[in-house]
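Running co-folding for MTE.
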Amino acid sequence: MADEKLQRIVEARLKLRARYQAKIQGSPAQSDPAPQGSGPVNRHGMPQLPPGQNHTRAWPVLDLGIKPEIALAQWALQIDGAVEAPVTLDWAAFQALPQVEDESDFHCVTTWSLMDSKWSGVQCSTLAALVRPLPEATHLMTYGYDGYTTNLPIEEALKDDVLLVHAWNGKPLPREHGGPVRMITPQLYAWKGAKWINRIEFLTQDRAGFWEVRGYSNSAHPWRDDRYS
Ligand SMILES: Nc1nc2c(c(=O)[nH]1)N[C@H]1C(S)=C(S)[C@@H](COP(=O)(O)O)O[C@H]1N2
Ligand SMILES: [Mo]
């Protein structure tokens, strides 16, 4: 990526971070004694699992009965809504963004937790910095190729461990888990991470996604056992 472009992203990120810092610090998972991204060291001296959760070894697959197959040449991610600079990224443009690796846990509301996954991908905050949310933007809606949707407050989406991942434990993300690219939200229940993600829309007011309409908690904090509304 060109240095100048990278520089612009970095500057925009710092501005965004400053704008949302207080909200992020005050948000539940951040203020609860809960692990976040970057691995088991984060769990030292803390409960291993959120209330009501059990370890799983195999990674279960949950979807709406569709597992879309998207060739990399066809893949695109649209980022739009209440932003200054909407963009549609193809695979090459997505790969050209700053990439990160992180280690975090995955808590499903159906009570299984997959611990210590290694992820590679792009921070959601990098994408936000690229499009620059308008001051009135408060939430985002994410969409999958299968028609799935889920909503998030911006301060949750900007957390460092919220990623759009394309690899899991060193291998390309399997199609059944949302490959080529899905979102992960380690500090929230896993339904907040859209598999086969193809759109992020910034909103000026909250709007419920697929499960949120059907009675799942809008806030979805595992450490508060915050499952259903
Ligand atoms: N596009 C899409 N994303 C989705 C879902 C879905 O049905 N479609 N299910 C959600 C739910 S309920 C969970 S628990 C996780 C499951 O991810 P996994 O199948 O990789 O375990 O993905 C979430 N993201
Ligand atoms: Mo789920």
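Result summary
Residues 2-31+42-58+66-224 form a domain with the Sulfite Oxidase; Chain A, domain 2 fold (CATH 3.90.420.10).
The helical segments are 3-26, 28-31, 91-96, 124-131, 154-157, 210-213.
Job closed.
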